[in-house]
């Protein structure tokens, strides 16, 4: 279910997410888009009768994070053309690092096709997985709240979780004073809730504005002064995503439990997500 319905969605809608939403071609962007579709399935699976609902839901989340960990290891895997004997990775479910990397077009694996020289650093893998689990929980809670409170709340969740909260501190125009400095303008949104993503305790030393001006390498940051016109599309983009989310939830709701679980002989294709913009 996960492999056929969620893992491919970023590639299938690559033009929308990368060209219209200006998400960078990174693994983080792929995770964000995939996480949204995992949540969409989660909403439907929660409505299944027990204990099947819990089994299906747990299997979906397990497959999601096993796949994410495998991809993280592939992205972090140091590579060289020199062949070496490698010990197995720590995680028992993880394939040998010399095996074929996941096929994906949304982001680039710089080490693809090369012989690895060692396993991905476990410390980095563990930290990154904690960050992704935090983001998974955060998006789920935000979208659940939007599901209950209405489209405006859901649009806010889309803006924060999928569009990088660009412009949270205001829009900078070419005529603004801050855009006339010697250095190119740069600002990104900071997660003030804390957790693994942002260490809020460090802000007492560096200051919020100084931290916002640091490039974290994610590729998601406010548009520059010369790109301010791109914000004009944001209400339309948020409306498109909210409409897509609502329509897909309604469509999945109309499927019977037997169809969702495949008990009537239905293929998983009956649950296949539609395009965001037809």
Question: How would you characterize the overall build of this protein?
Answer:
The protein has 278 residues and is mainly alpha-helical. The protein has a domain at 2-167 and 246-271. It is built from eleven helices and no strands. The two termini are 23 Å apart. The model is unreliable at 80-87 and 94-99 (pLDDT under 50).
Layout: helices, strands, pairs:
Elements: H1 2-5, H2 9-12, H3 14-20, H4 27-45, H5 52-76, H6 122-149, H7 151-161, H8 203-206, H9 208-212, H10 234-254, H11 257-261
Helix pairs in contact: 4-5, 4-6, 4-10, 5-6, 6-7, 7-10
Pick out its properties.
globular; 278 residues; 11 helices; mainly alpha
**Residues in helix, %:** 40-55%
Element-by-element helix/strand order: HHHHHHHHHHH
- DSSP strand (E) fraction? under 5%
Instruction: Report the span from N to C terminus.
Output: 23 Å
User: What Rg, in angstroms, do the CA atoms define?
Assistant: 20 Å
Structural class: mainly alpha
Major sheet size, sense and barrel closure: none
Low-pLDDT ranges: 80-87, 94-99
Categorize the overall geometry: globular
Provide a quick synopsis of the model.
The chain is mostly helical. The chain has 11 helices and no strands.
